[in-house]
């Protein structure tokens, strides 16, 4: 007798039951339509894989451009900036906007034509007024002989004036001392010795001469030559630096004149008294004077 359609047929021992058509349709990969949860998991995995590939591609691009620093975690922002600049401009040549700053110097010699000297008188007297009155007369005599020697009033200037007591070892006042000095400019160097001699004789034994200095009245031509030489010196220095960096000099960006005019030949603190009349004027030698110039020049650099 055939089994009825409502009964499940018996299976041989060890044989698994066959899946129903509905179960086969629900199984992934079995030719049926996967369930909704399975399709979502597949889309999530594909999206993660695409994101990871994009991140790997971005890192490779940054490494190729020199913008991603790896390895040493201690390298700072300055190191990264150097790496970027080196990648952008190459190991040699000039980066955009690169500049070099140098200082050029030059020194020239000139012959002084002007003398400056301090002349005056120091007088002593038992009274303060006596010391001052005597000093006034002697300094007036000095001014008169200077004017006679051709020194203009504008070239005579009082530089020091003092009146003080003289004290012994016990601090007792023994008298008074007056001192008056003039700073005198002599513009005719050939006659400067005679001028000094005349001033000393006008005050006699009370005459004082201090600190002689020499100068050049017009340094314009000398300084112009020195500046030109200093600029050439700066350019030569900049050429060496640019060549060492694998670049070339571009146009000048700025020039700053740092003039350092040579100081006069001075004998500070020298003081001596003149006694009696000499057979000849005071010998004076002007020698030479150096003028120095510095210029700071900024050049642009080009590759």
How would you sum up this structure in a few lines?
This protein has 303 residues and is of the alpha+beta class. The chain has six helices and eight strands, in the order αααββαββαβαβββ.
Write the layout of secondary structure elements.
Blueprint: H1 21-26, H2 36-65, H3 77-89, E1 99-110, E2 114-125, H4 128-148, E3 156-167, E4 173-186, H5 192-203, E5 207-215, H6 220-244, E6 248-260, E7 271-272, E8 289-302
Antiparallel strand pairs: 1-8, 2-4, 2-5, 3-4, 5-7, 6-8
Helix pairs in contact: 4-5
Mean pLDDT across residues: 76
Return the domain count: 3
- The number of helical elements comes to 6
C-alpha termini separation: 105 Å
DSSP E strands, number: 8
Strand order of the largest sheet: 3-4-2-5-7
CATH superfamily of the largest domain: Protein of unknown function (DUF541), domain 2
CATH architecture of the largest domain: 2-Layer Sandwich
Into which percent range does the helicity of residues fall? 25-40%
Beta-strand residue fraction: 25-35%
Give the radius of gyration: 50 Å
Structure description:
With 303 residues, the protein is of the alpha+beta class. Helix content is 35%, strand content 29%. Helix 4 (128-148) runs antiparallel to helix 5. The protein is elongated and about 85 Å long. The model is unreliable at 1-8, 21-26, 28-32, 58-91 and 263-277 (pLDDT under 50).
